[in-house]
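> tool_call: predict_assembly(chains=two)
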Amino acid sequence: MRASLLRVFALIRKEFLAVLKDPRSRFIIFAPPMIQCMLFGYAASFDLNAVPYAVLDESHGAASVALLARLDGSGIFKRQADLRRVEDIADWIDSRRALIVIRIDQDFERRLTSGEPAPVQAIADGRNSNTSGTALGYLQTAVDDFNTDWRSSHQQPGPSVRLVTRAWYNPNFESRWSMVPSLIGTLTMFGTMMLTALSVAREREQGTFDQLLVTPFRPYEIMTGKAAPNMVIGLGQATTVLLVAQFWFRIPFAGWFLVLYAGLTLFLMAAVGLGLFVSSIAATMQQAMLYAFLLVMPFAILSGLTTPFSSMPDVLQSAMIINPLRYALDMTKRVYLEDAGFVQLIPDFVPLAIIGVLTLAGAAWLFRRRLV
Amino acid sequence: MKDLRAKLRRIRALTVKETRQILRDPSSIAIGIVFPMMMILLFGYGLSLDINRIALAVVDEDASAQSAALIQTFRLSRYFTVMEKHSMRDANALLLERKADGVLRIPSDFTRRAHAGTAELQILVNGTDANQARIMQAYAAGPVALWSATQEPSAGAAARGLVVVVGRIWFNEANDSHYFLVPGLIVLVMTIIGAFLTAMVVAREWERGTLEALFVTPMRCGEFLLSKLIPYFVLGMIGFLLCLLAGKFLFQVPLRGSLLLLCVASVIYLLVALGIGLLVSTLVKSQFLASQLALLLTFLPALMLSGFLYDLRSMPVIIRGITYVLPARYAVALMQTIYLAGDVGSVIWPNLAVLAAMAAALLILTRLATRKLIA
């Protein structure tokens, strides 16, 4: 037992040295999560805070001016040009100078005052239909506000219902509040799985794995010696991202660090387990790298990071039962924003633990198979 | 003349060797063929920014004919699955357990205030997924507006004397998200094949010492690089072709610009990606570092900072500045325009010129960085 512990300890020490001794690889392990967290924290948002638009106002009335003034005052809509001719619309959209072109007809004012519906045409650049849909939604909101005011100032009360929306845990609907905590798991997963997958593959490519096999090491000892250091490095990466979230983006941390780190440890067990699993199949570093990438890619895309998990097809939703990142994202966001405790997180903790144990055991078994 | 023949023979020999290496390594094939197909299927069928079947818990404290009618409109909407609850406590519990995506509360004075025009409806959502919360808020406005229209004294004149937005989404009238996913996918696939795979190639030869063995042959550095470029270029074009076919036959995305222009743009972008991969590989000489750098410099920016998913105009100035250095930005603009808008000169030529300049610069730099020198 003692001897076994000593062996594992020696292997862990060697593993740390192999990864952390080279300043370049130290850099590549800790700098990217930090840089990416900052970049993506700012960039990865479906909110629009600038909608460049052009307008073709053929009405020139007080109402159209009031409507446009409301848009300009929103701070989001930025008027780029006042167009004169219908032919100019295509040019402004095609060249991407305007995301939306608003066209107000000649009889806009007359229709509005005489009580007919007054259409405003909004032409959006649908090259990214998601962006254009959001922009049209903002326009609709601005026009709704305008209508409410118009009604009240022209004594046309109708059954107007106000929708009051409250978002728990994120009162201002900030994308960043859900994105940045999600990055803790995502960036760590990319880093740790690749690192682990490569650590065994590198030894195999350089021939030192064979040497390791002729030592008194048992398969599970090799597995532990490879898994533990990578988990610690993974926790280090997660901490880096957490620090950026806390001190750079200043997203308030509602929960307990103890719960978060317990969850992250289970998650890293699963990530490292998958990495080792990949590396025991791969013969070269290139294979390990590419297989790990092919595995981590769908996990990241289908984790609910960029698109809502619940709107994926049922088949994929049930296939993602094996995706550790999915549970990790749910776990980090709930601890971070909702102050969830151990009991509420059982649905995340249990699958993570199962995936971790299964993959680590599988990797140890594959190591043993290589022995024979 | 004889020189040139010998040169071509050497290039051919090395290219054949590299090609065999690709063909015999299942992982190269996996990234060249399986990866594009996987991405096509994932992006085509897995990703959806539309939300349907929103589980909505409804608490009706008013219990009137009007509130029942309102709930009925939510029931009829294809976006909502309604669960009626009797108390806010039950509904909130559902929200916390993630069994409901949102709670709609109809206050007890709803009918009374609706007549006065001051009624309020409360919607509670879980903000931990801010995106979903916002989409839901927008969708909820639909049934409410519909209900308001039926309550109007003179039915049918709902929008009387009001401004109506008639929105038209050009290039994508049906608002099909495949339309912008497929052009973006081409960029992603070529980035991975071009940069990620080649990043390991030269580094591998350095690590294994096989490059030193090549140094003693008459091979020139330029020939060596060409032999690395050609097979991966072909692999990248296969990936491109797969995406092209999937876009046409699987997702029916129209190609409104010219096919020739699309191919030219792809070839140039692929050269940029290959250039980055080879340059990184030549500079760091380690497979681990090279692959991580390639991932960091090409793939993640292509996904997040290219305008493919997230709008570039809404990013802070500094981040937007960074995107100008990244080739993916120009490639996404090109692909989306050629695919959906057509041959718009004012978008195509500047972007194409930047990419061509980048490709030339990267390949020249790589050539300069490759020396027959043992460090």
